[in-house]
Amino acid sequence: MVNYKFKLTDTIAAISSAHSDGAIGIIRLSGDEAFSILKKIFQPKSKNTSKASQAKLMFGNIKIAQKVVDQALIANFYHPKSYTGEDMVEIYAHGNFALLNLILRHILSLGARLAEPGEFTRRAFLNDKIDLTKAEAIAEMMEVSSLMGAQVVSAQLEGRLQGEVIKFKNELKSVLAILNAGIDFSDEDLDFEQKDKLIKRLEVVNGQIGVLLKNAPSSIIMHHGGKVVIGGLVNVGKSSLLNALLGKDKSIVTNIAGTTRDMVGDYLLIDGLKLEILDTAGLRRLNGEAKLATSTIDEVGVDEVDEVDEVGEVEEIGIKKSFAGFKKADVILWVVDLTKPLFDIPASIKDKKILLVGNKLDLLGDKNFDFPKSVNNLPKIKVSALKNIGLESLKGQLKNLVLGQEKLKPENAHIFNSRQQGALQTAKKHLTLAIDKLKFIANEDTSAYELTLALDSLAAVVGQVTNEDVLGEIFAKFCIGK
Amino acid sequence: MWDVIVVGAGHAGIEAVHAAAKMQMKTLLLTMSIENIGQMSCNPAIGGVGKGHLVREIDALGGVMGELADKSGIQFRTLNTKKGAAVQATRSQSDMVIYRQEAKSCLGGLAKLKIIQREVKSLLWSKGNLSVEGVITDRGEEIKAKAVILTTGTFLKGVIHIGKEQFSAGRAGEAPADSLSADLVRGGLKMGRLKTGTTPRLDKNTIDFSILEEQKGDNPAPKFSFWGDFQKLPQTSCFITYTNLHSHQIIKDNLDKSAMYGGEISSIGPRYCPSIEDKVVKFADKERHQIFLEPTSLSSIEFYPNGMSTSMPIDVQLDFMRSIKGLAKVDIIKPGYAIEYDFVYPHQLRLSLELKRVKNLYLAGQINGTTGYEEAAAQGLMAGVNASLKIKEKEPFILQRNQAYIGVLIDDLITKSTKEPYRMFTSRAEYRLLLREDNADERLSQKGHQVGLLAEHKYLMFLDKQKRKKRLTKLLNSQSVEVSRKKSNASNVITERRLLSQLLKNPEANLATLVQGLPPSFLDNLNEYTKAEKTLVTSDFKYEGYIKRQEAQIKSYLKMEHVFIPRQLDYNSVPGLSLEVKEKLVDNQPETLGQAQKISGITPAALTILSVFIRKKKHLASTI
Question: What was the ipTM of the complex prediction?
Answer without folding.
Answer: 0.83
